[in-house]
């Protein structure tokens, strides 16, 4: 990482990771614990084998949606199209809706688990929480 000599290790890491290509995802949940959502960039396929495909989705433990996702035990990973950046900006807190409800920025449909899915994403995954690790 050129030009990073004076940065701390966190800064170097963030600068390097900003060069990595990735999708923008909005992770949403709904259930007994309530409805919540958050923008995430850390999501990866783990395995397509076994009883069910497995993916890794990283949500910061201080994110308002984190505990709600765990309590509901389900979520939808909405992988957004290029023209849907306003959705990720809304769920990241960079854009505000008139009514203050992040979910009012777009139309939603419920997945089998009840988790909200953007009506027309690039693709979406209906997920159940199998395990959680705080890092």
Explain what the structure shows.
With about 140 residues, the chain is of the alpha+beta class. It has one domain (about 25-130): Electron Transport, Fmn-binding Protein, Chain A (Pnp Oxidase, Chain A). It contains 3 helices and 8 strands. It has helices at about 10-15, 65-70, 85-90, and strands at about 25-30, 35-40, 45, 55, 75-80, 110, 115-120, 125-130. It has a 4-stranded antiparallel β-sheet. A two-stranded antiparallel ribbon has the order 3-4. The chain has a two-stranded antiparallel sheet with strand order 6-7. The two termini are about 25 Å apart. The relative contact order is 0.19. The model has no long low-confidence stretch (mean pLDDT about 90).
CATH-defined topology: Pnp Oxidase, Chain A
Secondary-structure element series: HEEEEHEHEEE
What is the helix fraction of residues, given as a range?
10-25%
Which band does the percent of strand residues land in?
Answer: 25-35%
Largest sheet: 4 strands, antiparallel
Structural class: alpha+beta
Distance between the termini: 25 Å
Strand order of the largest sheet: 2-1-5-8
- Specify the overall morphology: globular
CATH class: Mainly Beta
CATH architecture: Roll
* Radius of gyration, CA atoms, in whole angstroms: 16 Å
Low-confidence stretches: none
CATH superfamily: Electron Transport, Fmn-binding Protein, Chain A
The average pLDDT value, as a whole number, equals 91
| Overall strand count | 8
Number of helices: 3
Please give the domain count: 1
């Amino acid at each position: 990482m050129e030009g990073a000599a004076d940065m701390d290790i966190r800064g170097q890491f963030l600068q390097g990771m900003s060069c990595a290509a990735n999708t923008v995802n909005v992770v949403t949940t709904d259930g007994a614990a309530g409805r919540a959502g958050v923008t995430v960039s850390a999501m990866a396929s783990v395995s397509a084998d076994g009883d069910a495909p497995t993916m890794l989705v990283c949500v910061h433990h201080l994110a308002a949606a984190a505990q709600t996702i765990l309590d509901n035990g389900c979520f939808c990973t909405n992988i957004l199209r290029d023209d849907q950046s306003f959705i990720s900006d809304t769920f990241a807190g960079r854009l505000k809706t008139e009514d203050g409800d992040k979910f009012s920025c777009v139309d939603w449909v419920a997945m089998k688990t009840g988790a909200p899915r953007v009506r027309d994403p690039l693709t979406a995954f209906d997920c159940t929480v199998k395990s959680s690790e705080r890092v």
